Structures are given as structure tokens and as C-alpha cells.
DNA sequence: TAGTGGTCTAGACCACCGA
DNA sequence: CGGTGGTCTAGACCACTAA
């Protein structure tokens, strides 16, 4: 069953001309995730079932699933099965939320929406989200607090066509969970650019801080499974009692 | 040859009571790296040779080497062999140096040593580096410039026993390369804590900046292969034309 | 106890590299 | 061309989970 099918899907750069079978299997399974064949938290079929269905050996399916587990797309549990990764607060917290208290405590912040609007994308938004001219975006501005103390003010921009009707909803605390549950959009990776800045007047007022105080600016672009821009978010954080934790290996 | 040897080595937390063979193989190979059996850049024996020598199958050696490649300890090249990872500027740049120009350019900075001294570790150094009382540390203060413009001032503390004689040397641009080549100490991972701060008088003078300007403070602890603290480094960075890049998946 | 993922082996063949 | 790592298969057995 060694047919080198000519599936063409998203993914990393390939040497073009050779596409390992397990890579093709991975891509086909990711396609099913994108299509919502299995909901987050649900178990996939067992390795043996998938192998039989796809006409490859169990070892090849295993290698594909291992790769997906390394990408945090599925969770494997010995004796139980392989499950579609969930975007609950716990996962987000450890995967994408890197702000930690100086005492080492991680606390997921509460959020308060300050403004929500719908408008044509401006030049910056079009560039960041790779949008065509005249595409509409949803803009959210919110204040996030940890233990009652306001520490982050953030401006979020979303392509409206990807999230139809979101502008009319009450945004929950955990936006990535909403994207996944209600719009089938999975945030698979992010690219963050950090700078130190002086807090501007508007942000200072929202945060209850003195204008000009140093703050950490986090410019984040979130990408979907297909590596399409999903969300652009600029956060301004007071880091007096917090820090951004980055572990490199 | 399925003897579950009772090798006890560094590494992640184990369920204690079961230690996969490939894990044991990995640990034995890491032990050899630590002992300097193969120098950085040198090829390891082929999978088949290692398998024969260690009395396991080629597949098991492969799994161990794959794990080590994922940890950036070795580099595998199809058709050539498996090589001990080098700590040259290129590798450091992409693995541990996360500052990128706003134009997307990565430039390894030039360094100028401002001060170098040898002293008993103070309380903060003992805590960070997990040192016994009265251990001596080497302190280096240096200024780093990109394209001639000073952008980083950093204070480095090293356990003197781990780097005997370093205090009398002229520190090169790339310290991690020196640690590896001259002292057999490999920096395998780092933990960085980022904050926004106002530049203090002393740092401002070194950087040629105005005191009070916002800057990015990076508090980095570097760990060896055995997960022992190797270096404590606090960098203060001007991020007007730079940013810290963090990619999360 | 049945079913899952995890480990280990053995062997075949493929892609890639350098002499 | 020979040697390397990379892929794929098939099958045995182990560790873990839930009923």
C-alpha cells in the first residue's frame, strides 16, 4: 500500500519531489481537524482503525499522530486513546499566555471589554492580517486584571468574514476557546514581538497608571492550523509584579 | 538484549519503575557528550555501530538520537551522519538570541567588556546559580552594539569553579562558544524573564541614553546538559529599533 | 479482561552524500 | 559506488485504563 498520493496541503517547506507517507497521513488528518470531523476533546479512531482505513501500517499512523502531538494538535493518553486538543483556559495558559507573577504564580486574568466595533480594515490591519482592501475587521479593546489589579490593556483586530456575527456577541474571557467552539477556527501558533515602551495617555487612563511609565508591549499575530492570520493583538502590560517567561532549548 | 539496566542519569521526571530502553540509550550518549568523548562538530558513530556496541536494535538507537536532535544536542544529516551540535554564532543566534531588528534582520552584536572581576557570590547570585556559601563568581559587565549603536548593557555572573582561569582571559564575543570549547560546559537551555523598566543612571551612561527611558530587562539563567545553572545574565536592552521575538506553538 | 497507546525488534527499501 | 540517515512494514510484547 505504498502509493505516493499527490495530496497537496499546508505545512512546512518540502524538498518538492518527495513527500513521506506519514507526512501525507498527517496532512489528511489535519484536514479532517480543520473540517471539524472530530470535535475538540473527542477521541480519534484508534491507530489500528486509522491504519486500516487509510491503507498504511500502524507504525506510519503512529508517526503522523506523534508529529501532531508534538504540534499540540492532539493529546495522546496511553490506555485511553488520542484526543483532539482542547482550547480551554488551562491549555491556553501554558501554551500562549506567558505572563507570570514574580512569585511564580500563573493566574489567568479577568477581562473587561472597553470597546467593540466593526469597520473597514486600516492599512496596519490589512498588512498584519494579510487582508484584501475593503475587508471588514472587528475591533475589541479590553482591560485585563489579575487579582483585581488592572495590568493589561489590549487592542484586538479580527477579520470579520472569518468570525461572522462575533461583533454582536458578548466576548468571553477566553477568546481562543470561542474561536474554536463557535467558528471552528483553531489558533495553532503565535508570533509575538516584544518591546519596552512608555505608556501613552489613553492606556494609562485605562490602567489607572501614570502616563510615561515603562510597560511591555506585546504585538501578537495568531495563526490558524492552515497558517492563515486569524487575530492581531497588541497588549500593553505593566510588569511591576509580573514578567514574561520565555524558555529556550 | 532487553536488560532494563538501572542507569540513573539526569533528565525529565520519570514514572519511576519503568525506563524505556531508548531513554537509557539517550542518557548514556548524553553522558558521553558531557565527558567530551566526541568534540562539538565531530560525527558520532553510525546508528548501526552504536546499536551493535550498545546491544540494542538500530531502531532504538534511532529513537534516542532523534530525541537528542529534538533537544538540539546533535545534528543529523542524511547521507552524512550524526554530529555533535556546535555552539557557533549562527546556532546561538537562532537558538538563544531572540532580539531582531524591526526590519526583520538578525545581527549578532559586537561586545565591549566594561568590567571583569572575581568575588564571593552575593545573596542574589547564590540564589540564582544555586551556589554554596563562599563560592566565588566571575562578574562581567559588557556593552553590546549593533551596527555601531550601543543597545544592550549586561551583567553576567559565572560560578568560578566551573570556569577556572576564565577571569584572566579576554572574553570573546560569543561566550557560549568559549564555555563549550575551553571548559566543556554546554549551555543546553535557558529560562528568560522579561520586564519593562526605566533605565537607571549607570546603564544610561553606558548606553549613551537618557536615564529613565523605557528598556527591556532580560533576566536569563542558562542551564547545562545536566540542568545545572551555568550562567546568570541580566541584560538591559533599548528596543527602539529592535524587538524580542517569541514564537509559540 | 479487552482495548488503547508505547516500546522494541528485524528487515526491506529509499533518498542523499561523497569519493 | 558504498555508507549514511529516513521511511515503511509486520509482529511481538509491555504499560496503562476502564469496565
From TrEMBL, chains A, B:
<dbReference type="InterPro" id="IPR050679">
    <property type="entry name" value="Bact_HTH_transcr_reg"/>
</dbReference>
<feature type="domain" description="HTH gntR-type">
    <location>
        <begin position="19"/>
        <end position="87"/>
    </location>
</feature>
<dbReference type="InterPro" id="IPR036388">
    <property type="entry name" value="WH-like_DNA-bd_sf"/>
</dbReference>
<dbReference type="Pfam" id="PF07702">
    <property type="entry name" value="UTRA"/>
</dbReference>
<protein>
    <submittedName>
        <fullName>GntR family transcriptional regulator</fullName>
    </submittedName>
</protein>
<dbReference type="InterPro" id="IPR011663">
    <property type="entry name" value="UTRA"/>
</dbReference>
<dbReference type="GO" id="GO:0003677">
    <property type="term" value="F:DNA binding"/>
</dbReference>
<dbReference type="GO" id="GO:0045892">
    <property type="term" value="P:negative regulation of DNA-templated transcription"/>
</dbReference>
<keyword id="KW-0804">Transcription</keyword>
<dbReference type="InterPro" id="IPR028978">
    <property type="entry name" value="Chorismate_lyase_/UTRA_dom_sf"/>
</dbReference>
<keyword id="KW-0805">Transcription regulation</keyword>
<dbReference type="InterPro" id="IPR036390">
    <property type="entry name" value="WH_DNA-bd_sf"/>
</dbReference>
<dbReference type="Pfam" id="PF00392">
    <property type="entry name" value="GntR"/>
</dbReference>
<dbReference type="GO" id="GO:0003700">
    <property type="term" value="F:DNA-binding transcription factor activity"/>
</dbReference>
<dbReference type="InterPro" id="IPR000524">
    <property type="entry name" value="Tscrpt_reg_HTH_GntR"/>
</dbReference>
<keyword id="KW-0238">DNA-binding</keyword>
Amino acid at each position: 500500500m505504498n502509493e505516493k498520493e499527490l495530496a497537496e496541503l499546508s505545512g512546512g517547506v518540502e524538498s518538492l519531489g518527495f513527500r513521506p507517507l506519514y507526512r501525507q497521513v498527517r496532512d489528511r488528518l489535519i484536514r479532517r481537524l480543520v473540517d471539524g470531523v472530530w470535535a475538540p476533546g473527542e477521541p480519534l479512531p484508534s491507530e489500528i482503525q486509522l491504519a486500516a482505513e487509510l491503507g498504511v501500517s500502524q507504525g506510519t499512523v503512529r508517526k503522523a499522530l506523534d508529529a501532531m502531538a508534538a504540534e499540540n494538535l492532539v493529546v495522546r493518553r496511553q490506555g485511553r486513546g488520542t484526543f483532539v486538543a482542547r482550547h480551554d483556559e488551562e491549555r491556553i495558559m501554558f501554551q500562549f499566555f506567558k505572563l507570570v507573577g514574580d512569585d511564580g504564580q500563573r493566574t489567568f486574568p479577568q477581562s473587561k471589554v472597553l470597546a467593540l466595533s466593526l469597520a473597514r480594515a486600516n492599512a496596519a490591519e490589512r498588512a498584519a492580517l494579510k487582508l484584501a482592501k475593503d475587508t471588514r475587521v472587528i475591533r475589541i479593546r479590553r482591560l485585563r486584571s489579575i487579582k483585581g489589579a488592572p495590568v493589561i490593556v489590549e487592542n484586538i483586530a479580527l477579520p470579520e468574514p472569518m468570525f461572522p456575527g462575533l461583533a454582536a456577541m458578548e466576548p468571553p474571557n477566553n477568546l481562543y476557546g470561542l474561536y474554536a467552539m463557535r467558528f471552528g477556527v483553531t489558533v495553532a501558533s503565535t508570533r509575538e514581538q516584544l518591546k519596552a515602551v512608555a505608556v501613552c495617555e489613553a492606556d494609562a487612563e485605562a490602567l489607572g497608571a501614570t502616563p510615561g511609565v515603562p510597560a511591555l508591549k506585546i504585538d501578537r499575530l495568531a495563526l490558524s492550523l492552515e497558517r492563515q492570520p486569524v487575530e492581531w493583538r497588541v497588549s500593553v502590560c505593566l510588569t511591576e509584579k509580573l514578567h514574561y517567561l520565555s524558555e529556550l532549548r
